[in-house]
Amino acid sequence: MERRNFDGKFGRFEMAVESTCCGSGFFIHILVIIFLVLFAGLMSGLTLGLMSMSLVDLEVLAKSGTPKDRKHALKILPVVQKQHLLLCTLLICNAAAMEALPIFLDGLVTAWGAILISVTLILLFGEIIPQSVCSRYGLAIGAAIAPFVHGLVWICFPVAFPISKLLDLLLGHGHVALFRRAELKTLVNLHGNEAGKGGELTHDETTIIAGALELSEKTAKDAMTSISEIFAIDINVKLDRELMNLILEKGHSRIPVYYEQPTNIIGLVMVKNLLTIHPEDETPVKNVTIRRIPRVQGTLPLYDILNEFQKGHSHMAVVVRQCKQAEQLSSSSASDNAEKDVKIDIDGEKPLQEKVLKSKRLLHKWKSFPNSANNSYGRSRSRKWTKDIDADILHIDGNPLPQLAEEEAIGILTMEDVIEELLQEEIFDETDHHLEDS
């Protein structure tokens, strides 16, 4: 039924179109209104649900999620690859539905009633409820209607594509939200069962992961055992009964050997090579097999040392520092008579990030390993240790003993030390437990 009112005196013309209640036009308007509200709500919910999923999260779910999550993620990934195009499509459809709703409401109620009802319907059923549902079940809902969304992208493509390209030009595209090292550590800790948030990671798992993330920030100086805490022997001493008993008491598999002073460590002796030595013979240490030991700077990252350890040539290194006298001299005026071992140098120093485990060691023990570094004269220092097995042996007969005047040893670093920093826990062997119990 159509009603017209005209007031010629005031020049006012009013027209309202009303549909007869329970007529065919009335039900058509109701169905269209319901469709527009649901469609606008779906677009609003998908905007929040799909756009809040980063490509990294979806790739993680697609590769390592539950079977159900993997299936959903694989369906959603092609849709959200072009995020700006998807965003423009969803917003265009949402805006079209919300703008069309008052037009159909105006055919049923007055103008102010249409505004009031449309605002209420859009706010409640087009925004609050859809976004609440999609924020929780966005993965499942997005996967279920992914083909429908793909069709909308093609329908809105003529309008959405230019806008999306403009956004790509202004804001860039393909942003990947990756976590920094500190953020990953916090994320792992939050997933631990000790955090009380329902995580499945145990204390040991979170500790080891955190230790692996922190290992790149730690250096050789952080994990070494101080030179004052190690057990070493002079190359000129004799392997008599007293010294052999002391070596047996210490329980180490390898003993460092120094020349003249403990800070001038030149090699090491493997205890298994002393099995054939008779204490009554008082064999000098220099007459037994002495293996070389690589020398590294205290600023060398532990990951670099671990990579060298994994090659199987060496499981221990001596940590050195430049003497003050040597620091004042230029490299061109360095002593030609000093024998230079192969060293792994590093430019610059890294700040100390963590208080080292070794500073609180209760057991003053020394851990050793064989050296596979080349001893060269006048050669540039290499970053890799030699693979020549014969180069591991320090030849004493007829050769002057090495004495490095430009540097001094400050500590010993072994693979066990690096692994302890990785695990962030002490590793005890049978001898350690014996000493601890006693």
Automatic annotation (TrEMBL):
Compartments, as annotated in UniProt = Membrane
Which membrane topology describes this protein?
Answer: Multi-pass membrane protein
Q: Which GO terms describe its cellular component?
A: cytoplasm; membrane
Which InterPro entries does this UniProt record tie to the protein? Answer: ACDP (IPR045095), CBS_dom_sf (IPR046342), CNNM (IPR002550), Ion_transp-like_CBS (IPR044751)
Transmembrane region positions? 21-40, 111-130, 137-161
Q: Which residues form a coiled coil?
A: none
Q: Write down the Pfam families for this protein, in alphabetical order.
A: CNNM (PF01595)
PROSITE patterns, per database record: CNNM (PS51846)
Record's keyword annotation contains Plastid = no
Span of domain CNNM transmembrane: 22-205
> Mainly resides where?
membrane
Entry keywords, A to Z? CBS domain, Glycoprotein, Membrane, Repeat, Transmembrane, Transmembrane helix
One GO term (biological process): magnesium ion homeostasis
Q: Which SUPFAM superfamilies match?
A: CBS-domain pair (SSF54631)
Q: Which PANTHER family match?
A: CNNM TRANSMEMBRANE DOMAIN-CONTAINING PROTEIN, METAL TRANSPORTER CNNM
- State the name under which the record lists this protein: CBS domain-containing family protein
Kindly list the organism's lineage: Eukaryota, Viridiplantae, Streptophyta, Embryophyta, Tracheophyta
